[in-house]
Amino acid sequence: MAFEYAPAPESRAIVDIKPSYGLFINGEFVDGTGTSFKTVNPANEEVLAEVAEASDADVDEAVKAARRAYTRVWSRMSGAERAKYLYRIARIIQERGRELAVLESIDNGKPIKESRDVDVPIVAAHFFYYAGWADKLQYSGYGSTPLGVAGQVIPWNFPLLMLAWKIAPALACGNTVVLKPAETTPLTALLFAEICQQADLPPGVVNIVTGAGDTGRAIVSHPDVDKVAFTGSTEVGKAIARTVAGTDKKVTLELGGKAANIVFDDAPIDQAVEGIVDGIFFNQGHVCCAGSRLLVQESVADEVLERLKRRMSTLRMGDPLDKNTDVGAINSGEQLMRIRELSQVGDAEGAERWEVACDLPTKGFWFPPTIFTGVSQAHRIAREEIFGPVLSVLTFRTPSEAIEKANNTPFGLSAGVWTDKGSRILSMANRLRAGVVWANTFNKFDPTSPFGGYKESGYGREGGRHGLEGYLKGADS
Length: 477
Ligand code: NAD
Description:
Aldehyde Dehydrogenase, Chain A, domain 1, Aldehyde Dehydrogenase, Chain A, domain 2, binds nicotinamide-adenine-dinucleotide, alpha/beta, 14 helices
Protein backbone atom coordinates (compact mmCIF):
# COMPACT_ATOMS: atom_id res chain seq x y z
CA MET A 1 0.00 0.00 0.00
CA ALA A 2 1.39 3.41 -0.96
CA PHE A 3 1.34 6.21 1.57
CA GLU A 4 0.75 9.69 0.23
CA TYR A 5 2.30 12.61 2.06
CA ALA A 6 1.86 16.30 1.51
CA PRO A 7 5.24 17.96 0.94
CA ALA A 8 6.71 19.28 4.20
CA PRO A 9 9.67 21.39 3.16
CA GLU A 10 11.88 23.01 5.77
CA SER A 11 12.27 26.71 4.97
CA ARG A 12 15.70 27.79 3.78
CA ALA A 13 15.00 31.39 4.83
CA ILE A 14 16.99 30.83 8.02
CA VAL A 15 20.21 30.50 6.01
CA ASP A 16 22.03 33.46 4.55
CA ILE A 17 24.22 32.15 1.74
CA LYS A 18 26.57 34.85 0.50
CA PRO A 19 27.39 35.11 -3.21
CA SER A 20 31.10 34.61 -2.48
CA TYR A 21 33.34 33.46 0.35
CA GLY A 22 36.99 34.14 1.19
CA LEU A 23 39.32 32.17 3.44
CA PHE A 24 39.18 32.25 7.24
CA ILE A 25 42.70 33.09 8.39
CA ASN A 26 43.75 34.60 11.70
CA GLY A 27 40.17 35.15 12.81
CA GLU A 28 39.09 37.05 9.68
CA PHE A 29 37.65 36.34 6.27
CA VAL A 30 40.25 37.36 3.70
CA ASP A 31 40.45 37.22 -0.09
CA GLY A 32 42.64 34.41 -1.29
CA THR A 33 45.49 34.97 -3.75
CA GLY A 34 44.35 31.99 -5.86
CA THR A 35 41.33 31.40 -8.07
CA SER A 36 37.84 30.39 -6.99
CA PHE A 37 35.34 27.59 -7.56
CA LYS A 38 31.59 27.13 -7.38
CA THR A 39 29.69 25.02 -4.90
CA VAL A 40 26.33 23.68 -6.11
CA ASN A 41 23.20 22.23 -4.58
CA PRO A 42 23.35 18.59 -5.73
CA ALA A 43 19.56 18.24 -5.53
CA ASN A 44 18.92 20.80 -8.30
CA GLU A 45 22.35 21.93 -9.61
CA GLU A 46 21.76 25.52 -8.45
CA VAL A 47 25.04 27.38 -7.98
CA LEU A 48 25.10 28.37 -4.33
CA ALA A 49 28.27 30.45 -4.02
CA GLU A 50 31.71 31.21 -5.39
CA VAL A 51 34.39 30.01 -2.94
CA ALA A 52 38.08 30.94 -2.77
CA GLU A 53 40.59 28.28 -3.76
CA ALA A 54 43.52 28.64 -1.38
CA SER A 55 46.95 28.84 -3.05
CA ASP A 56 50.20 27.58 -1.50
CA ALA A 57 50.84 31.15 -0.29
CA ASP A 58 47.40 31.27 1.38
CA VAL A 59 48.04 27.94 3.10
CA ASP A 60 51.36 29.31 4.30
CA GLU A 61 49.59 32.36 5.78
CA ALA A 62 47.11 30.09 7.53
CA VAL A 63 49.86 27.90 9.00
CA LYS A 64 51.74 31.01 10.18
CA ALA A 65 48.58 32.31 11.87
CA ALA A 66 48.06 28.92 13.52
CA ARG A 67 51.68 28.83 14.71
CA ARG A 68 51.45 32.34 16.21
CA ALA A 69 48.21 31.52 17.97
CA TYR A 70 49.70 28.26 19.25
CA THR A 71 52.88 29.82 20.64
CA ARG A 72 51.46 33.04 22.02
CA VAL A 73 48.00 32.10 23.23
CA TRP A 74 46.53 28.65 22.95
CA SER A 75 49.30 26.43 24.29
CA ARG A 76 49.81 28.82 27.22
CA MET A 77 46.17 28.89 28.23
CA SER A 78 45.02 26.56 31.00
CA GLY A 79 42.90 23.59 30.02
CA ALA A 80 39.96 25.04 31.94
CA GLU A 81 40.18 28.27 29.88
CA ARG A 82 40.31 26.33 26.62
CA ALA A 83 37.29 24.34 27.77
CA LYS A 84 35.27 27.53 28.12
CA TYR A 85 35.73 28.25 24.41
CA LEU A 86 34.81 24.69 23.45
CA TYR A 87 31.68 24.78 25.59
CA ARG A 88 30.79 28.13 24.06
CA ILE A 89 31.20 26.74 20.54
CA ALA A 90 29.09 23.69 21.47
CA ARG A 91 26.29 25.88 22.78
CA ILE A 92 26.32 28.15 19.71
CA ILE A 93 26.14 25.05 17.49
CA GLN A 94 23.00 24.03 19.37
CA GLU A 95 21.52 27.52 19.16
CA ARG A 96 22.23 27.73 15.43
CA GLY A 97 21.44 24.06 14.85
CA ARG A 98 18.59 24.62 12.43
CA GLU A 99 20.68 26.98 10.32
CA LEU A 100 23.56 24.50 10.21
CA ALA A 101 21.25 21.59 9.35
CA VAL A 102 19.51 23.44 6.51
CA LEU A 103 22.82 24.63 5.06
CA GLU A 104 24.31 21.12 5.30
CA SER A 105 21.34 19.63 3.44
CA ILE A 106 21.51 22.31 0.73
CA ASP A 107 25.25 21.95 0.10
CA ASN A 108 25.54 18.17 0.60
CA GLY A 109 22.17 16.75 -0.55
CA LYS A 110 21.48 14.76 2.63
CA PRO A 111 17.90 14.64 4.00
CA ILE A 112 17.08 17.31 6.56
CA LYS A 113 15.92 14.67 9.04
CA GLU A 114 19.49 13.34 9.08
CA SER A 115 21.36 16.66 9.18
CA ARG A 116 18.92 17.92 11.85
CA ASP A 117 18.62 14.77 14.00
CA VAL A 118 21.98 13.06 13.48
CA ASP A 119 24.78 15.29 12.17
CA VAL A 120 24.23 18.51 14.10
CA PRO A 121 23.41 16.93 17.50
CA ILE A 122 26.52 14.71 17.28
CA VAL A 123 28.62 17.72 16.25
CA ALA A 124 27.53 19.62 19.36
CA ALA A 125 28.02 16.50 21.51
CA HIS A 126 31.58 16.17 20.23
CA PHE A 127 32.48 19.70 21.30
CA PHE A 128 30.81 19.18 24.70
CA TYR A 129 32.63 15.87 25.17
CA TYR A 130 36.12 17.17 24.34
CA ALA A 131 35.51 20.38 26.30
CA GLY A 132 35.24 18.05 29.28
CA TRP A 133 38.70 16.59 28.56
CA ALA A 134 40.53 19.93 28.16
CA ASP A 135 41.34 20.29 31.88
CA LYS A 136 41.75 16.56 32.57
CA LEU A 137 44.43 15.61 30.04
CA GLN A 138 46.77 14.38 32.78
CA TYR A 139 44.34 11.45 33.17
CA SER A 140 44.21 10.64 29.45
CA GLY A 141 47.13 8.22 29.48
CA TYR A 142 48.73 10.13 26.62
CA GLY A 143 50.31 13.00 28.57
CA SER A 144 49.10 16.57 28.32
CA THR A 145 51.56 18.18 25.90
CA PRO A 146 50.05 19.31 22.57
CA LEU A 147 51.80 18.75 19.25
CA GLY A 148 51.49 22.25 17.77
CA VAL A 149 49.77 23.01 14.45
CA ALA A 150 47.40 20.38 13.06
CA GLY A 151 46.68 20.26 9.30
CA GLN A 152 43.30 18.62 8.76
CA VAL A 153 41.68 17.53 5.49
CA ILE A 154 38.12 16.17 5.39
CA PRO A 155 35.66 14.65 2.88
CA TRP A 156 32.19 15.68 1.72
CA ASN A 157 29.97 12.97 3.18
CA PHE A 158 29.65 14.44 6.71
CA PRO A 159 31.14 17.91 6.24
CA LEU A 160 30.32 19.37 9.65
CA LEU A 161 30.61 16.12 11.58
CA MET A 162 34.08 15.37 10.20
CA LEU A 163 35.06 18.96 11.06
CA ALA A 164 33.94 18.38 14.65
CA TRP A 165 35.78 15.04 14.86
CA LYS A 166 38.96 16.85 13.82
CA ILE A 167 38.74 20.26 15.50
CA ALA A 168 37.25 19.40 18.93
CA PRO A 169 40.01 17.00 20.15
CA ALA A 170 42.77 19.11 18.55
CA LEU A 171 41.68 22.25 20.38
CA ALA A 172 40.97 20.46 23.65
CA CYS A 173 44.57 19.20 23.68
CA GLY A 174 45.98 22.69 23.05
CA ASN A 175 46.76 22.48 19.33
CA THR A 176 45.75 25.02 16.71
CA VAL A 177 44.38 24.00 13.33
CA VAL A 178 44.29 24.64 9.60
CA LEU A 179 41.35 22.71 8.18
CA LYS A 180 40.29 22.15 4.59
CA PRO A 181 36.72 21.04 3.88
CA ALA A 182 35.97 19.11 0.67
CA GLU A 183 35.53 21.14 -2.49
CA THR A 184 31.88 20.13 -2.98
CA THR A 185 30.81 20.96 0.60
CA PRO A 186 32.63 24.02 1.95
CA LEU A 187 29.69 26.04 3.28
CA THR A 188 29.10 24.65 6.77
CA ALA A 189 32.82 24.88 7.56
CA LEU A 190 32.65 28.57 6.62
CA LEU A 191 29.60 29.01 8.84
CA PHE A 192 31.57 27.28 11.59
CA ALA A 193 34.26 29.95 11.05
CA GLU A 194 31.60 32.58 11.84
CA ILE A 195 30.74 30.60 14.97
CA CYS A 196 34.41 30.78 16.04
CA GLN A 197 34.20 34.57 15.67
CA GLN A 198 30.94 34.63 17.64
CA ALA A 199 32.60 32.57 20.39
CA ASP A 200 35.49 35.06 20.52
CA LEU A 201 37.96 32.27 19.85
CA PRO A 202 41.42 33.87 19.73
CA PRO A 203 42.47 34.65 16.12
CA GLY A 204 44.48 31.91 14.42
CA VAL A 205 43.36 29.05 16.68
CA VAL A 206 41.07 27.80 13.88
CA ASN A 207 41.83 28.58 10.23
CA ILE A 208 39.61 27.32 7.41
CA VAL A 209 41.08 27.19 3.92
CA THR A 210 38.89 26.06 1.04
CA GLY A 211 40.06 24.36 -2.14
CA ALA A 212 40.58 20.96 -3.74
CA GLY A 213 43.39 18.39 -3.84
CA ASP A 214 46.19 20.93 -4.43
CA THR A 215 45.20 22.90 -1.34
CA GLY A 216 45.07 19.64 0.65
CA ARG A 217 48.51 18.70 -0.62
CA ALA A 218 49.89 22.12 0.42
CA ILE A 219 48.58 21.59 3.95
CA VAL A 220 49.87 18.07 4.48
CA SER A 221 53.31 18.82 3.01
CA HIS A 222 53.78 22.15 4.82
CA PRO A 223 57.00 21.92 6.87
CA ASP A 224 55.54 23.77 9.86
CA VAL A 225 52.57 21.42 10.30
CA ASP A 226 53.19 19.02 13.21
CA LYS A 227 50.20 16.76 12.79
CA VAL A 228 48.24 15.59 9.76
CA ALA A 229 44.70 14.30 10.22
CA PHE A 230 42.99 13.06 7.08
CA THR A 231 39.63 11.48 6.35
CA GLY A 232 38.93 10.45 2.79
CA SER A 233 39.72 7.84 0.19
CA THR A 234 42.30 5.11 0.70
CA GLU A 235 44.07 6.21 -2.49
CA VAL A 236 44.67 9.78 -1.24
CA GLY A 237 45.43 8.44 2.25
CA LYS A 238 48.25 6.33 0.82
CA ALA A 239 49.63 9.36 -1.05
CA ILE A 240 49.59 11.36 2.19
CA ALA A 241 51.34 8.56 4.08
CA ARG A 242 54.09 8.68 1.43
CA THR A 243 54.35 12.50 1.69
CA VAL A 244 54.83 12.53 5.46
CA ALA A 245 57.09 9.45 5.60
CA GLY A 246 60.51 10.51 6.83
CA THR A 247 59.20 13.67 8.53
CA ASP A 248 58.41 13.90 12.23
CA LYS A 249 54.75 14.71 11.56
CA LYS A 250 52.25 12.61 13.47
CA VAL A 251 49.51 11.18 11.21
CA THR A 252 46.04 9.73 11.58
CA LEU A 253 44.19 8.38 8.54
CA GLU A 254 40.49 7.50 8.42
CA LEU A 255 39.93 5.87 5.04
CA GLY A 256 37.45 3.71 3.18
CA GLY A 257 35.46 0.63 4.16
CA LYS A 258 33.38 -2.27 2.85
CA ALA A 259 31.55 -3.42 5.94
CA ALA A 260 29.78 -6.77 6.28
CA ASN A 261 26.32 -6.67 7.85
CA ILE A 262 25.80 -10.28 8.98
CA VAL A 263 22.28 -11.61 9.55
CA PHE A 264 21.86 -15.02 11.26
CA ASP A 265 18.72 -17.11 10.98
CA ASP A 266 17.75 -16.47 14.62
CA ALA A 267 17.82 -12.68 14.20
CA PRO A 268 14.61 -10.67 14.62
CA ILE A 269 14.08 -10.25 10.89
CA ASP A 270 12.09 -7.00 10.86
CA GLN A 271 14.66 -5.31 13.08
CA ALA A 272 17.48 -6.67 10.96
CA VAL A 273 15.80 -5.29 7.85
CA GLU A 274 15.67 -1.84 9.48
CA GLY A 275 19.38 -2.22 10.27
CA ILE A 276 20.19 -3.25 6.70
CA VAL A 277 18.30 -0.22 5.35
CA ASP A 278 19.97 2.12 7.84
CA GLY A 279 23.34 0.49 7.14
CA ILE A 280 23.37 1.16 3.42
CA PHE A 281 20.79 3.86 2.61
CA PHE A 282 21.55 6.30 5.46
CA ASN A 283 23.23 9.37 3.91
CA GLN A 284 22.70 7.83 0.42
CA GLY A 285 25.31 5.21 1.32
CA HIS A 286 28.00 7.92 1.41
CA VAL A 287 29.26 6.44 4.66
CA CYS A 288 32.75 5.00 5.13
CA CYS A 289 31.38 2.40 7.55
CA ALA A 290 28.23 1.65 5.44
CA GLY A 291 27.01 -1.93 5.65
CA SER A 292 27.52 -2.36 1.91
CA ARG A 293 27.92 -6.17 1.99
CA LEU A 294 24.91 -8.02 3.36
CA LEU A 295 25.87 -11.53 4.49
CA VAL A 296 22.66 -13.40 5.16
CA GLN A 297 22.33 -16.97 6.40
CA GLU A 298 21.07 -19.13 3.53
CA SER A 299 18.06 -20.52 5.41
CA VAL A 300 16.50 -17.06 5.82
CA ALA A 301 17.87 -15.37 2.70
CA ASP A 302 14.62 -15.48 0.71
CA GLU A 303 12.55 -14.14 3.59
CA VAL A 304 15.04 -11.35 4.39
CA LEU A 305 15.25 -10.29 0.76
CA GLU A 306 11.49 -10.25 0.33
CA ARG A 307 11.00 -8.10 3.42
CA LEU A 308 13.95 -5.89 2.49
CA LYS A 309 12.51 -5.15 -0.94
CA ARG A 310 9.12 -4.39 0.58
CA ARG A 311 10.73 -1.99 3.07
CA MET A 312 12.87 -0.35 0.39
CA SER A 313 9.75 0.34 -1.65
CA THR A 314 8.53 2.62 1.14
CA LEU A 315 11.66 4.80 1.14
CA ARG A 316 10.96 8.31 -0.03
CA MET A 317 13.52 9.90 -2.34
CA GLY A 318 13.55 13.54 -3.23
CA ASP A 319 13.98 17.09 -1.95
CA PRO A 320 16.55 16.91 0.87
CA LEU A 321 14.78 19.78 2.63
CA ASP A 322 11.48 17.86 2.79
CA LYS A 323 11.02 16.43 6.28
CA ASN A 324 9.55 13.22 4.81
CA THR A 325 12.59 12.47 2.66
CA ASP A 326 14.54 9.31 3.52
CA VAL A 327 17.05 9.32 0.68
CA GLY A 328 18.45 12.55 -0.73
CA ALA A 329 20.73 13.49 -3.61
CA ILE A 330 24.12 12.03 -4.55
CA ASN A 331 26.70 14.62 -3.56
CA SER A 332 28.14 15.37 -7.01
CA GLY A 333 27.94 14.46 -10.68
CA GLU A 334 31.38 12.89 -10.37
CA GLN A 335 30.29 10.61 -7.52
CA LEU A 336 27.12 9.68 -9.44
CA MET A 337 29.30 8.59 -12.39
CA ARG A 338 31.41 6.39 -10.07
CA ILE A 339 28.31 4.72 -8.61
CA ARG A 340 26.87 4.12 -12.10
CA GLU A 341 30.13 2.70 -13.41
CA LEU A 342 30.68 0.27 -10.58
CA SER A 343 27.04 -0.83 -10.69
CA GLN A 344 27.42 -1.56 -14.39
CA VAL A 345 30.42 -3.72 -13.51
CA GLY A 346 28.04 -5.63 -11.21
CA ASP A 347 25.69 -6.23 -14.18
CA ALA A 348 28.58 -7.35 -16.36
CA GLU A 349 29.83 -9.72 -13.66
CA GLY A 350 26.45 -11.47 -13.70
CA ALA A 351 24.95 -10.19 -10.43
CA GLU A 352 21.23 -9.51 -10.48
CA ARG A 353 20.18 -5.87 -9.99
CA TRP A 354 16.95 -4.85 -8.26
CA GLU A 355 16.12 -1.21 -7.64
CA VAL A 356 13.27 0.72 -6.16
CA ALA A 357 10.85 1.78 -8.88
CA CYS A 358 10.39 5.52 -8.50
CA ASP A 359 10.46 8.70 -10.55
CA LEU A 360 13.73 10.51 -10.05
CA PRO A 361 13.86 14.32 -10.16
CA THR A 362 14.94 15.57 -13.58
CA LYS A 363 17.57 17.97 -12.23
CA GLY A 364 20.33 17.14 -9.78
CA PHE A 365 22.19 13.90 -9.07
CA TRP A 366 20.11 10.87 -8.11
CA PHE A 367 20.54 7.12 -7.81
CA PRO A 368 17.73 4.83 -6.59
CA PRO A 369 18.29 2.46 -3.65
CA THR A 370 19.61 -0.69 -5.30
CA ILE A 371 20.51 -4.25 -4.35
CA PHE A 372 22.56 -6.83 -6.19
CA THR A 373 21.90 -10.50 -5.47
CA GLY A 374 23.89 -13.48 -6.69
CA VAL A 375 27.09 -11.71 -5.72
CA SER A 376 30.23 -13.76 -5.13
CA GLN A 377 33.43 -12.89 -3.29
CA ALA A 378 35.27 -12.44 -6.57
CA HIS A 379 32.94 -9.72 -7.84
CA ARG A 380 34.31 -6.19 -7.82
CA ILE A 381 31.04 -4.92 -6.30
CA ALA A 382 31.78 -7.18 -3.30
CA ARG A 383 35.34 -5.90 -2.92
CA GLU A 384 35.38 -2.21 -3.89
CA GLU A 385 33.76 0.65 -2.09
CA ILE A 386 30.83 2.01 -4.13
CA PHE A 387 30.07 4.84 -1.70
CA GLY A 388 26.45 5.06 -2.78
CA PRO A 389 23.04 3.46 -2.10
CA VAL A 390 24.01 0.06 -3.50
CA LEU A 391 23.96 -3.17 -1.48
CA SER A 392 25.69 -6.41 -2.48
CA VAL A 393 24.03 -9.53 -1.07
CA LEU A 394 25.98 -12.72 -0.33
CA THR A 395 24.89 -15.79 1.61
CA PHE A 396 26.59 -18.10 4.13
CA ARG A 397 25.80 -21.35 5.95
CA THR A 398 27.96 -21.38 9.08
CA PRO A 399 29.39 -18.74 11.44
CA SER A 400 32.91 -19.65 10.28
CA GLU A 401 31.94 -19.05 6.67
CA ALA A 402 30.42 -15.69 7.66
CA ILE A 403 33.67 -14.68 9.41
CA GLU A 404 35.78 -15.82 6.49
CA LYS A 405 33.69 -13.82 4.01
CA ALA A 406 33.40 -10.76 6.25
CA ASN A 407 37.18 -10.57 6.75
CA ASN A 408 37.97 -11.25 3.11
CA THR A 409 38.47 -7.58 2.23
CA PRO A 410 41.35 -5.13 2.22
CA PHE A 411 39.30 -2.90 4.53
CA GLY A 412 38.47 -3.24 8.22
CA LEU A 413 36.40 -0.34 9.44
CA SER A 414 33.14 -1.77 10.76
CA ALA A 415 30.74 -4.73 10.80
CA GLY A 416 27.23 -5.57 12.01
CA VAL A 417 25.99 -8.81 13.59
CA TRP A 418 22.30 -9.70 13.89
CA THR A 419 21.48 -12.67 16.12
CA ASP A 420 19.48 -13.57 19.19
CA LYS A 421 22.48 -15.22 20.90
CA GLY A 422 24.71 -13.07 23.10
CA SER A 423 27.49 -15.65 23.08
CA ARG A 424 27.56 -15.62 19.29
CA ILE A 425 27.80 -11.81 19.27
CA LEU A 426 30.87 -11.98 21.50
CA SER A 427 32.59 -14.69 19.53
CA MET A 428 31.88 -12.93 16.21
CA ALA A 429 33.11 -9.59 17.58
CA ASN A 430 36.37 -11.22 18.65
CA ARG A 431 36.96 -12.75 15.23
CA LEU A 432 35.91 -9.87 12.97
CA ARG A 433 38.82 -7.68 11.86
CA ALA A 434 36.91 -4.41 12.06
CA GLY A 435 37.45 -1.31 14.18
CA VAL A 436 33.77 -1.13 15.19
CA VAL A 437 31.35 -4.06 15.51
CA TRP A 438 27.69 -3.23 16.05
CA ALA A 439 25.39 -5.89 17.49
CA ASN A 440 21.69 -5.80 16.57
CA THR A 441 22.08 -2.20 15.48
CA PHE A 442 24.11 -0.25 12.92
CA ASN A 443 25.61 3.21 12.36
CA LYS A 444 25.45 4.20 16.02
CA PHE A 445 27.87 7.03 16.83
CA ASP A 446 28.77 8.57 20.13
CA PRO A 447 31.59 10.99 20.98
CA THR A 448 32.67 8.81 23.90
CA SER A 449 33.30 5.82 21.63
CA PRO A 450 36.50 5.50 19.56
CA PHE A 451 36.13 4.97 15.82
CA GLY A 452 38.74 3.88 13.28
CA GLY A 453 40.00 1.09 11.09
CA TYR A 454 42.31 -1.84 10.50
CA LYS A 455 44.20 -2.62 7.31
CA GLU A 456 43.47 -0.23 4.41
CA SER A 457 40.78 1.56 6.42
CA GLY A 458 43.54 3.59 8.04
CA TYR A 459 45.13 4.03 11.43
CA GLY A 460 44.52 6.05 14.56
CA ARG A 461 41.24 6.47 16.40
CA GLU A 462 38.81 9.39 16.56
CA GLY A 463 36.38 9.86 19.42
CA GLY A 464 36.58 8.89 23.06
CA ARG A 465 39.70 8.97 25.21
CA HIS A 466 41.60 7.23 22.39
CA GLY A 467 40.87 10.21 20.13
CA LEU A 468 43.19 12.33 22.30
CA GLU A 469 46.23 10.22 21.45
CA GLY A 470 46.63 11.70 17.98
CA TYR A 471 46.89 15.23 19.38
CA LEU A 472 49.24 14.73 22.34
CA LYS A 473 52.97 14.04 22.53
CA GLY A 474 52.56 10.94 24.69
CA ALA A 475 52.90 9.93 28.31
CA ASP A 476 56.69 10.14 28.42
CA SER A 477 57.15 13.68 27.16
P1 NAD B 1 39.06 12.08 -1.32
O1 NAD B 1 40.20 11.35 -0.76
O2 NAD B 1 39.00 12.27 -2.79
O3 NAD B 1 39.01 13.55 -0.70
C1 NAD B 1 39.03 13.79 0.68
C2 NAD B 1 39.66 15.14 0.93
O4 NAD B 1 41.02 15.12 0.52
C3 NAD B 1 39.03 16.29 0.17
O5 NAD B 1 39.01 17.43 0.99
C4 NAD B 1 40.00 16.50 -1.01
O6 NAD B 1 39.99 17.81 -1.52
C5 NAD B 1 41.33 16.19 -0.35
N1 NAD B 1 42.39 15.75 -1.24
C6 NAD B 1 42.28 15.18 -2.47
N2 NAD B 1 43.51 14.88 -2.94
C7 NAD B 1 44.41 15.25 -1.98
C8 NAD B 1 45.83 15.15 -1.86
N3 NAD B 1 46.57 14.60 -2.82
N4 NAD B 1 46.41 15.59 -0.73
C9 NAD B 1 45.68 16.10 0.28
N5 NAD B 1 44.34 16.23 0.22
C10 NAD B 1 43.70 15.79 -0.89
O7 NAD B 1 37.80 11.36 -0.74
P2 NAD B 1 36.29 11.71 -1.01
O8 NAD B 1 35.90 11.08 -2.29
O9 NAD B 1 36.02 13.15 -0.83
O10 NAD B 1 35.60 10.97 0.25
C11 NAD B 1 35.13 9.70 0.17
C12 NAD B 1 36.08 8.73 0.86
O11 NAD B 1 36.28 9.08 2.23
C13 NAD B 1 35.54 7.34 0.89
O12 NAD B 1 36.52 6.43 0.47
C14 NAD B 1 35.19 7.11 2.35
O13 NAD B 1 35.20 5.79 2.75
C15 NAD B 1 36.17 7.93 3.05
N6 NAD B 1 35.71 8.30 4.39
C16 NAD B 1 36.28 7.69 5.48
C17 NAD B 1 35.84 7.98 6.76
C18 NAD B 1 36.46 7.31 7.95
O14 NAD B 1 36.25 7.78 9.07
N7 NAD B 1 37.21 6.24 7.79
C19 NAD B 1 34.82 8.90 6.96
C20 NAD B 1 34.25 9.50 5.83
C21 NAD B 1 34.72 9.19 4.56
